[in-house]
Automatic annotation (TrEMBL), chain A:
Species of provenance: Chelatococcus asaccharovorans
Descriptive protein name: 2Fe-2S iron-sulfur cluster protein
InterPro entries listed in its UniProt record: 2Fe-2S-bd_N (IPR042204), 2Fe-2S_ferredoxin-like_sf (IPR036010)
Membrane-spanning ranges: none
Superkingdom of this protein's organism: Bacteria
Molecular-function GO term, any one: iron-sulfur cluster binding
SUPFAM superfamilies membership: 2Fe-2S ferredoxin-like
Keywords (A to Z) from UniProt: Oxidoreductase
From TrEMBL, chain B:
Molecular function via GO: oxidoreductase activity
Pfam families: Fer2_BFD, Pyr_redox_2
Protein name: NADPH-dependent 2,4-dienoyl-CoA reductase/sulfur reductase-like enzyme
Limits of the FAD/NAD(P)-binding domain: 6-311
Keywords from the named record: Oxidoreductase
Domain BFD-like [2Fe-2S]-binding per the UniProt entry, residue ranges: 381-431
Length: 102, 469
């Protein structure tokens, strides 16, 4: 649970969607910041034990904020700037294979 | 492949910004690459947006605003910036492989400066994978980059300068329900005391004064502090709901909404490890750092390390460190005489040293506690593959010689973070179990790609190289 220090609302720069839910954001927000600001508690399930995971380091080292962004899986939400109309999806389990990571 | 750069600097924090400015001002074609969308690294994160914002400037304090000078100098220099750009591989011939918005490219350089900074020391704790638990660095990044503060009951647990600084910033930002769990063993204060007199020299007294002021402000604001905190366990059903801990013989349980953990910072070694250069274990800072000479030169020709990536020195010393590496590179590239190099490096070195006088005192005072380096059996060490400290001890006692064998047996370090958040703990646990020191125990072999690159992205790059070739 987070609030903006000015007490203002979250949505001055547009909105993205998270599993269909509209998430307003401000200029400068990363996808992870926008989700946390909107009260999203967790963004993926760990593929090994199914436990819920949420952004942890916010600087690109922990990979806990992996989500699907506009159809591309395994994107680090803390490193991607929020843009209007972005479609974010919760990542459940391991990445699907066809695109194949090295 | 695009035409070669004289110098490629990786990381736009204080070391990288100072290095890139110095190189570009020295007349060499310089590219500064950073994975983030904005300049500043983590310490000066979002400085260009925030510097003109009086509310945030008041909360974050004057040291943060110093980043503005580095940014101004860089913007005025002819250095070219590549932001939102990942470096995922460096070849021995100084080819730097990048990815920007899904497009892979390879650039050649005559000199490379790795300024990838620090990361927070992993703080394995029961329940640390629960949503609602973040690092204190992460909470501070949310404040700097999105003006967000935790809105419910906040518990900050840990030690080190950032722990107190962020607590103070929370108070200034109007966070109402804040409790501090200070994990620094009180006895460490006594063992650090002999180092205090020399810490007051140079600029050291400013760091110590800042610390004293922070603590006084927290007392004045009546922020509850538990000291000598041990046995921290975060519990909750699907998210953090309470923190259990002990002080002395007393057990406590605090309901909470957000938990921030912090146990100091260590060099982010992923990139230097991938270069296959020697890393030494720094006993005072309890972490590995890449072996380099006084100007940051690594054993790989043409590659330097600068700032916290080469050993924790802090923002101001890092900026001087970046300049020193850049001056050496300029000399290598034939743009500086011996005399000019030596004179300017000596100047930067004096400032750098002045900012390091308090470092041995702080390193001793905030030495990581035993439970962070060697957590209880039930605690998850590898968050990605969910591997506990007990499982690691088990393979260590069955004769697995070190971290790379543990990786093969347990998959620890093979998840998406590629060992960043478990590597330091795995080394520490193995060292304790085998009786070897951390240097002998070693660390994961880190190979490129440093972050996952898809076959599609690589195929795109191959196509581009073929068309040009």
């Amino acid at each position: 649970m987070f609030r903006r220090i000015d007490g203002g609302d979250n949505g001055t720069a547009g909105a993205l969607s998270f599993d269909g839910q509209a998430i307003p954001f401000r200029a400068g927000d990363t996808v992870a910041a926008a989700l946390l600001a909107a009260g999203v508690a967790d963004v993926r399930d760990n593929p090994v034990d199914g436990s819920r995971r949420a952004p942890y380091c916010m600087m690109g080292v922990c990979f806990e904020c992996l989500v699907e962004i506009d159809g591309r899986q395994n994107q680090q939400a803390c490193l991607v700037a929020a843009k209007p109309g972005m479609r974010i999806r919760r990542q459940a389990g391991a990445r699907l294979l066809p695109e194949g990571a090295l | 492949m695009s035409e070669p750069w004289d110098a490629v600097v990786i990381g736009a924090g204080p070391a990288g910004m100072a290095a890139a400015s110095t190189l570009a001002e020295g007349g060499v074609r310089t590219l500064l690459v950073d994975e983030q969308a904005e300049l500043g690294g983590q310490i000066y994160r979002a400085i260009e947006r925030n510097r003109a914002d009086p509310a945030l400037a008041r909360i974050l304090g004057p040291d943060y605003l110093k980043g503005g000078m580095l940014v101004d100098r860089l913007r005025a220099s002819p250095a070219q910036l590549a932001l939102s750009t990942l470096v995922w591989r460096i070849d021995d011939d100084l080819t730097v492989w990048t990815r920007t918005a899904g497009t892979v490219a390879a650039v050649r350089a005559s000199a490379i400066i790795v300024a990838t900074g620090a990361m927070e020391r992993p703080a394995p704790t029961a329940g640390w994978t629960l949503p609602g638990v973040m690092t204190i660095g992460a909470l501070q990044i949310l404040l700097k980059s999105a003006r967000l503060t935790p809105s419910g009951r906040l518990v900050l647990a840990g030690s080190g300068p950032l722990f107190y600084l962020f607590a103070r910033q929370c108070v200034a930002a109007g966070v109402k329900d804040l409790t501090l769990l200070d994990t620094a063993p009180t006895r460490q204060m006594w063992s650090a005391l002999p180092l205090l007199p020399s810490a007051l020299g140079g600029e050291g007294w400013r760091y110590l004064t800042k610390g004293v002021k922070l603590l006084a402000a927290l007392r004045l604001a009546r922020v509850p502090v538990y000291r000598d905190v041990r046995d921290i366990a975060i519990e909750g059903d699907g998210r953090a709901e309470a923190v259990r801990f002990t002080t002395g013989r007393r057990a406590h349980r605090l309901p909470c909404d957000t938990v921030g953990l912090h146990e100091g910072v260590i060099p982010h070694q992923q990139m230097t490890r991938s270069l296959d250069v020697a890393h030494d274990f720094d006993e005072a800072q309890r972490c590995f750092r890449p072996r380099h000479d006084a100007s940051g030169r690594l054993s790989k020709p043409g590659i330097f390390v600068a700032g916290d990536a080469g050993g924790i020195i802090g923002a101001e010393a890092s900026a001087q460190d970046g300049a020193i590496a850049a001056l050496s590179a300029l000399h290598d590239l034939g743009r500086l005489t011996d005399e000019a190099r030596d004179r300017r490096i000596a100047e930067a070195g004096r400032v750098r040293r002045a900012h390091l006088t308090a470092r041995p005192f702080l390193d001793r005072l905030y030495q990581p506690r035993a439970a962070v380096l060697d957590p209880p059996d039930a605690v998850t060490v590898c968050r990605c593959e969910v591997v506990t400290a007990g499982a690691l001890r088990d393979v260590a006692n069955k004769g697995a010689p070190g971290p790379n064998q543990a990786k093969a047996f347990l998959r620890c370090g093979m998840g998406p973070c590629q060992g960043r958040l478990c590597g330091p703990t795995v080394t520490a646990v193995f060292a304790r179990e085998t009786g070897l020191d951390p240097a002998e125990t070693g660390y994961y072999h880190i190979r490129s790609p440093l972050k996952p690159i898809t076959v599609g992205e690589l195929a795109g790059a191959a196509g581009a190289v073929e068309r040009e070739g």
